[in-house]
Amino acid sequence: MRRSPSWLPDGRVEWMLLAALAACYPASLVLPAAWAREGGPLESLQVLVLCAGCVLALLMYVRARPARVAMLALWLAPVWLLLAGRELSWGRAWLPDHSTAADTMAGMALWFQPLVRPGAGVLLAALLVSAVYHRIDGPLRAAFTRRVPWVVLIVMLAAAMGSTCAEGHMSCHLDRVIPSAQAFEELCELLAYVALCMAQHVVFMHQMPPKRIPGIVRAPAVTPEEAG
């Protein structure tokens, strides 16, 4: 049987990711503007996807121990939490409108803001050291040996680029051209996180340890002399 090239869509999920990528701009034109605001439904969906990625990583760690992919899963869990914290602006997204919020509430909720960047920097440094020490690149290379999920990676990169350009970064000011740039940015970001979660799933499924079936005892092999 002839196998299709790895860059072609394989399965419904990859086709759905491509369809979602193509639908980001049309959907941004019809969605209510309130959905794209900070703390709105789209941002809440992003945080939900990121938290789901963290939970799946922790479940994989519990199931795969002591295999090397377990360390990769444990390494990925705080990365998901960092992304979720960034989406929530480290707590500021839970505050009401700054123009109407009380100063005491803002002070109580944002007292830890000066600690965010140093704490994130220390965590990233620790993740980098642990990645080198535990050689977590091994499960990644092993997972991509059979088939690289190019469609998932391309959708993730394209969605991230679309979100970045919609924000006006990288000298690409789509925010001046697209009438609903904020909604387009949030939709692209949501799709990028979904694709990232899918990429994690691909790696985990290729490295899933075999499941033991209880109650089955294999008999020792019988030699021809014993059979005679």
Automatic annotation (TrEMBL):
The chain crosses the membrane at residues 46-62, 69-85, 115-136, 148-170. Keywords: Membrane, Transmembrane, Transmembrane helix. It comes from the Bacteria. This is Uncharacterized protein.
